Amino acid sequence: xxxxxxxxxxxxxxxxxxxxxxxxxxxxxxxxxxxxxxxxxxxxxxxxxxxxxxxxxxxxxxxxxxxxxxxxxxxxxxxxxxxxxxxxxxxxxxxxxxxxxxxxxxxxxxxxxxxxxxxxxxxxxxxxxxxxxxxxxxxxxxxxxxxxxxxxxxxxxxxxxxxxxxxxxxxxxxxxxxxxxxxxxxxxxxxxxxxxxxxxxxxxxxxxxxxxxxxxxxxxxxxxxxxxxxxxxxxxxxxxxxxxxxxxxxxxxxxxxxxxxxxxxxxxxxxxxxxxxxxxxxxxxxxxxxxxxxxxxxxxxxxxxxxxxxxxxxxxxxxxxxxxxxxxxxxxxxxxxxxxxxxxxxxxxxxxxxxxxxxxxxxxxxxxxxxxxxxxxxxxxxxxxxxxxxxxxxxxxxxxxxxxxxxxxxxxxxxxxxxxxxxxxxxxxxxxxxxxxxxxxxxxxxxxxxxxxxxxxxxxxxxxxxxxxxxxxxxxxxxxxxxxxxxxxxxxxxxxxxxxxxxxxxxxxxxxxxxxxxxxxxxxxxxxxxxxxxxxxxxxxxxxxxxxxxxxxxxxxxxxxxxxxxxxxxxxxxxxxxxxxxxxxxx
Length: 587
What we know:
Elements lengths: L2 H16 L14 H5 L5 E4 L1 E3 L24 H4 L3 E2 L16 E6 L2 H7 L3 E9 L2 E2 H13 L6 H32 L1 H24 L18 H12 L5 H12 L4 E4 L12 H6 L6 E2 L1 H5 L1 H6 L9 E2 H11 L13 E2 L1 H4 L7 H7 L12 H8 L5 E7 L8 E7 L6 E4 L6 E4 L4 E9 L3 H5 L5 E7 L5 H4 L6 E2 L1 H4 L2 H5 L10 E2 L7 E7 L3 H5 L18 H6 L6 E2 L8 H7 L7 E2 H11 L1
Parallel strand pairs: 2-15, 5-11, 7-16, 15-19
Antiparallel strand pairs: 1-12, 3-7, 4-5, 4-10, 5-6, 8-18, 9-17, 11-12, 13-14, 14-15, 16-19, 20-21
Helix pairs in contact: 5-9
C-alpha cells in the first residue's frame, strides 16, 4: 500500500474512534479576566508537594501460570478517576486561552446564599508559561522525532533477498554445466571417494545449521507519547502535523489537557459525620448545650476495646449503629461543572436542572449555549492564580486574586500548604494546588496537563477535633474536646447546628493527574509541633499499652502513692517527661 493509502487508513481509524467520544462546544471567556488575575493577591499559599506515584512493575504469577495483563495504554484505562471527555480536535487549541480555566460550583448551601452557581476562574501557569502553551510545546517536541530506520531496513532486506535469489540461480546454472563435464571422470574416482563421502556425511549430520539473526525486533505495546508519535509517523510515512500530535496526546496517550475528576468522586463521603452523630444523642440535628457538656462521655462510650483511646474507626462504627438502616441519603447531583457541561441541561432531568435553573433566563426548560455564554463573560465570584514550578517547588504558589462584588466571603490562608479558605456564610470553599515532587524525569515528561476536582469533604468536626491528625483521641486530647467543639458555635447560642458544622468544599488543581490523590484523603488540619519530643524510659514504654505517650492509673501497675509521686503536675497522667525526670533523679 502507498504512503497515502496508509495515512488514509490511519485517519479513518481515528475518525471512527472519535465518533464515540462526546464533543463539546466552545464557550466564550471574559475579556477582562487576564487583568484581574494578574492583580495583587488577597491571600497566598504554597503548592503542596506529593510523593511520586510511579507504580512498581508487576511480575506474572508463576504458581497459577496466569500471565500479567498488558499495561494500560489509553487515557480512560490509565486514569479511571477522571472524565476522559474530549473536545473536537479543531477546538483543542482555543479551549484554554492564556491558561485560563472556568468552572461552576453548585452546592445547595451556596445556591441558597447567592441564588445561582458559584463562578470560579483560574489562571494556571507552569514555569511562568500558561499550561496550554506548555502543552502545545510538548506536542511539538514529541512530534519532531527522527524517522525510524525500520522502513529502510525492510527495503534493504527485500533488496538483499532478491540479490541472494539471483546469485543462487547463477550458481545453480554454473554447477549444472560443470557437472556434465565431470561425469566421465566420476566413475573412475567413485571407489576412492566412497570412504571420504561417508565421513563427510557423518560430519554434516553432527554440524548445527547456522541461524540467521532476527532482522526486525518483536512488536511491543507502548504507553510513551514519543514512541506513539514515532510509530504513527512510521505507519503514515509522513511527518506529524500539530493537529495530529495533539489528537494523539488527547486520545491515545496522556489524555486531554484538562482532566476533571469524575462526578461520583465528588460526594462519596459527603454524608459522613460520625462525630456529630455521636454527640447528637436525641437525634434532633443539633448538638445542644447539655450534649456539649456530655461530649467526653459520648466519646468514651465509643471505646469498644476499652483501651482509654477512642479512634476514628470506633467513632465511625458507633455512628453507623445509630443510623436508620432504611435511610438512603439523597444525591445532590454534580458539584463541579465546566461551562460545556451546563449546555443542554433540561427540565426533564430535575436533579440537574434545579442546580442550574438560574441560568435558564427565558425559562424555556433548557439551558442554551447563549445563556451559558452570557454567564461565562460575567465577572467571576472567585479568581485564582496558580503558578506551578518544576525547577524550584518552594516558589510554587496558589493565590486568591479577587472576590466578586456580588458575594460576601472571608479569605483566610491555611497552614502547611493546605490551601486558602474562602468562607461564605454557611459553607467554606478551600482552594489548593498540588504537584509531584520534581525530579529530572518529572521535568522531562512535563506535558502541561492539569487536573481539576472538587469534593464535599464530609467529617465536618472530626479533623478539627484531632489536633495532631493521627485519628486517635487520647485521654489528654479529650480534655480539650468541649472547648474545641464550642469554636463551631458561630452564633453563640451554646449549641451546634448542622449548618454550623457543614462540611467544607475542597477544590484542587493539580499539575498532571494529581488532584484525585489529594482529594482522596480527608483535609489535613494538623498543626506543626512546637514542643520537642521526649524519649521515654523503657519501663514507661512497656506500661504504655495504648501508645498514647501517657500512663493512666489503669496502665500503671504500682501503688497509688507511687503513681502520685511520679505525677509531678498532678494531672492524673504520667507523661514521658515526668518519667524521664524520675530516671535522672534516680541515677
